[in-house]
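Figure S7 source data.
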Amino acid sequence: MPEASIEYINFDKLISESISEPLVTHIYTADPSAHVFDGKIYIYPSHDVESNVPFDDLGSHFAMEDYHVISMDSPGSKTIDHGIALHVQDVPWAKEQMWAPDATEKAGTYYLFFPAKAHDGIFRIGVATSSSPAGPFTPRPAAIQHSFSIDPAVFKDEDGSYYLYFGGIWGGQLQRWRAGEFIAEGEGPLVHLPADDEPALCPKMARLRDDLLEFDEAPKDILIIDENGDPLLAGDTDRRFFEASWLHKYQDKYYFSYSTGDTHFICYAIGGSPYGPFTYAGRILNPVVGWTSHHSICSFEGKHYLFYHDSSLSKGVTHLRSIKMTELEYDASGNIKTISPYRE
Ligand code: FUB
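Tokens for the predicted beta-L-arabinofuranose complex:
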């Protein structure tokens, strides 16, 4: 496990071998969701903090309380921290654990989608709005109806439809929703997971209502299939979905990308519709220092960028991460070239 192997890593060497630097160093940030608004890059990350909560497989040590928005005029330029954009204390339905957010824009209003644990201990997804991409954001009084689990990612299609992708297993609680309602009993993240030879749990998606404040349909499974058309199995931990959904379009195809969690890859799958199915296509990012891996993909002036995080700045502390970016390339067939985050 990464925690146990930390003592064997030479962090100074690793930092010098990183292909990119942290985008901000005055705070810890993670889970970067990047978009271009008004010609600038806006990044919506988690804001990592020291929690003194012991490490566990539910991610209880990720005890974040607020969000900051980071912007930059262009890749490589100075980053600006716009301060607190939303705090858990201002969200009536949320109790704790402000995990990976995302944002979008419609008709001059900016929408921040974020997961948090509600007062009953169940993860839900909320929306907050602002007239500025930098916030501050005003939260809705209640979470999105019928929302659950974590890691919302919003995708605007060319026809003007908006879709929300979400879900995460283990601490993200997706395994507790297998029967369509939350299974409260059973401690630990592994209790309700499928067996290794059963289909893996699917990420979820739903089209958003015109006002982007609620789902317009019941959340659906996103099927990730292998080269034979069969669903990836739960035991296929190098390829199956764990958390950190992202959707982008390239050359008229839909690319669904995600983290494999306990095997630490960012992978992707390609489909012909925002609803999938998506055929597994390969790895985008090899493992980073730290347990989690989370990303987004954003284009700026004709180039494509991978936004990701690692724990090299904190010298391996799992819950103290730093956002980074690097160029992402496609080959002539539309496959993404795998990125290694440290030079060999
Ligand atoms: O930042 C908390 C959680 O860690 C995110 O929701 C996951 O995607 C993982 O990065």
